[in-house]
């Protein structure tokens, strides 16, 4: 039975009284509803110090340095996996998380591939890494008959050259970009073969002159304002751009596709660092986020899919029905999960990415 929204469990209230009256949360930019934190504080008495990042690498650097001071962080599942191996996160106390009963068993089972038994993490949101685009700008340059279906829009130099003047951006994240290039090259997107990664780097170098920039959050504003016309981006970010464009009423229409060659499905996980100053407060926060109406409110604001089955009745019908947010079975069959790179592959990927980024 669903717990009424403000009838937060005694554990949350106890956490506010027994522990420090604040927690520190480190999460992705533009990734929470405007009222979520205030509602948590109202319900529990626990204040939230909230900071943001825009890449897994930035989060990992803070955590690996030690004594981050954060109580809750939100890594993507593959980064979480190797960080668990490094002892960075503590196991969850399920007795403090009654709202786990709302979570989709199938999606949690997929996430368990990165965290056996889901011992350390809970899915916050999930989505895909695809293409956001300015519909009118693309049609003007490629014509009415050009199908907007796949990675050719970014990785094919002949196509990208026609779109360069209106602006193409890539995520500044090799762990997102390289698998997508491999999928476009009809190679295994999860490959760690140095020859495959070199081929992906060369493909990026061929298209590099047509790219405006690499960034993992700027594209949201730039798509909405018409400053760029194509962006490799995370699904919810692109839908935020579309929403902002519609609100601004500047004649900019933004849409999103999951490329036909395949795209990455990812899970962002809520986890608690081993040295969290307030683990009880952190558990209260995770449990609160899993309240169905709270989860739905976040999805309705950020346009990312959630893994909370009880939340779906509160999700806006337009969002629940959008194939780019909750893809159908055929599209899901073409999705691939992230690969966890070993240290050697990680170093190679970093070198190749630096070469692509700098052109040297």
TrEMBL record:
Keywords from the named record: Periplasm, Signal, Transport
Location, primary (coarse class): periplasm
Listed GO MF terms: polyamine binding
Tagged with keyword Transport: yes
A Pfam family per the record: SBP_bac_8
Domain of life: Bacteria
GO cellular component: periplasmic space
Chaperone recorded as keyword: no
Stretch forming the signal peptide: 1-20
InterPro entries with a match to the protein in the record: SBP, Sperm_putr-bd
Biological process terms in GO annotation: polyamine transport
Record's subcellular location: Periplasm
Role according to the record: Required for the activity of the bacterial periplasmic transport system of putrescine.
Family of the protein in this entry: Belongs to the bacterial solute-binding protein PotD/PotF family.
Protein's UniProt name: Putrescine-binding periplasmic protein
Species: Rhodobaculum claviforme
């Amino acid at each position: 039975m669903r717990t009424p929204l403000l009838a937060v469990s005694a554990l949350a209230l106890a956490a506010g009284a027994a522990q420090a009256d604040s927690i520190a949360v480190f999460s992705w930019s533009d990734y929470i509803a405007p009222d979520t934190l205030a509602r948590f504080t109202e319900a529990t008495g626990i204040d939230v110090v909230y900071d943001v990042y825009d890449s897994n690498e930035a989060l990992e650097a803070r955590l690996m340095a030690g004594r981050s001071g954060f109580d809750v962080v939100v890594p993507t599942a593959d980064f979480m996996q190797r960080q668990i191996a490094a002892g960075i996160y503590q196991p969850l106390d399920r007795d403090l998380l009654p709202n786990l009963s709302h979570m989709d068993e199938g999606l949690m089972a997929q996430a368990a591939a990165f965290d056996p038994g889901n011992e350390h993490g809970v899915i916050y949101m999930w989505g895909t890494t695809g293409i956001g685009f300015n519909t009118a700008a693309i049609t003007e340059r490629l014509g009415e008959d050009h199908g907007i279906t796949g990675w050719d829009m970014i990785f094919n130099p002949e196509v990208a050259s026609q779109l360069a003047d209106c602006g193409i951006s890539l995520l500044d994240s090799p762990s997102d970009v390289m698998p997508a290039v491999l999928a476009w090259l009809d190679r295994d997107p999860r490959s760690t073969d140095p020859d495959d990664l070199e081929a992906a780097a060369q493909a990026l170098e061929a298209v590099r002159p047509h790219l405006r920039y690499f960034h993992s959050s700027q594209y949201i504003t730039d798509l909405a304002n018409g400053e760029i016309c194509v962006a490799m981006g995370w699904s919810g970010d692109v839908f935020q751009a579309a929403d902002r464009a519609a609100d601004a009423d500047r004649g900019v229409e933004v849409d999103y596709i999951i490329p036909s060659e395949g795209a990455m499905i990812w899970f962002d996980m809520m986890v608690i660092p081993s040295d969290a100053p307030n683990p009880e407060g952190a558990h209260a926060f995770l449990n609160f986020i899993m309240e169905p109406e709270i989860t739905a409110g976040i999805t309705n604001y950020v346009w990312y899919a959630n893994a909370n089955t009880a939340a779906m009745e509160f999700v806006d019908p337009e969002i629940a029905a959008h194939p780019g947010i909750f893809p159908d079975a055929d599209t899901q069959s073409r999705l691939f999960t992230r690969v966890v790179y070993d240290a050697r592959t990680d170093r190679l990927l970093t070198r190749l990415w630096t070469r692509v980024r700098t052109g040297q």
